[in-house]
Amino acid sequence: MIKSYSKINLFLKVIKKNNKGLHNIQSTVMLLNLHDKISIKKINKDKDNIKFIGQFKKDINKNTNTISESLSLLRKKNLIDQKKRYKITINKKIPIFAGLGGGTSNAVFLIKYFLKNKISDKLLRIFEDKIGSDFRLFFFKHSFQKDLKKILKFKKKYIFYFVLVYPYINSSTEEVYSKVKKFNLPLKYDLSKIESKDSYIKLIKKEKNDLQKIVETKHKKIKKILDIIKIQKNCLFSRMTGSGSVCFGAFFNRKSAKQGLIKIKKKLPNCWCVFTKSI
């Protein structure tokens, strides 16, 4: 059984577009213990059998998805046997179109399994172009994304606890980025080198998610959710992750996060609310 971890953006700055027309961003990212489960079995068939199960299987294209794309790429590059076929079952516990990177994560952990974690930089660039620009983020538990191509591993490990709230709103990454009109200046310092947890949090709290206002404008519910999260006792800050629509509250300790979860669930009974932590 393969664990395919989700990610969270503690902040996100949109810098500018690169020469390929993609928005360049800066962000700090943590992997969370909220994960999908992937099982793989060889089968004697003419084609692969890819099956999605679980709470968030709906809205996934059964013919074209990151799993089928990954297998196609692996065969095209002769990285797996052309003749072998597989039954792959993905238990979707990560909401989709939510900013948690579930689809890319599935591809990364499947590819890492087949290549036994031996992936060259050349292959990484190929997978990034074909699967998603966030592909590299899933190789580090905690990273500073200086730009689309440069991901820096944190020197010191921090553990944070989170309450995640998903309002069952499918947020299209492409649509959200298409509405970006203003660009930010990049950070002048390397967050990955900060060794004080208090200093790190102080800096993170000053930042924001540049995509959040865009999603809030379209979906008024997002701001309401974030306001409910941030008033919870000992909540460090509340924010939306990625292009949304998952909102989160960050906490220093487990007890505060779990107490916050209970109160948030009562206020937002129609939302999916969970406790999780960084890995």
**CA radius of gyration:** 19 Å
| Uncertain runs | none
- Overall pLDDT: 95
Rough outline: globular
Helix content: 25-40%
State the major sheet. 6 strands, mixed
Strand content: 25-35%
Straight-line N-to-C gap: 18 Å
The arrangement of helices and strands along the chain is EEEHEHHEEEHHHHEEHE
Output the number of helix runs. 8
Question: How many E strands?
Answer: 10
Please state the structural category.
alpha+beta
Can you describe this structure?
- The chain is of the alpha+beta class.
- It contains 8 helices and 10 strands.
- The chain has helices at 66-76, 102-114, 121-130, 173-178, 197-206, 212-218, 221-230, 254-267; strands at 2-17, 23-43, 49-53, 85-91, 142-145, 151-153, 161-166, 235-240, 247-251, 272-277.
- The longest helix has 14 residues, at 254-267.
- The model has no long low-confidence stretch (mean pLDDT 95).
Give a brief outline of the structure.
The chain is built from 8 helices and 10 strands. By secondary structure, it is an alpha+beta fold.
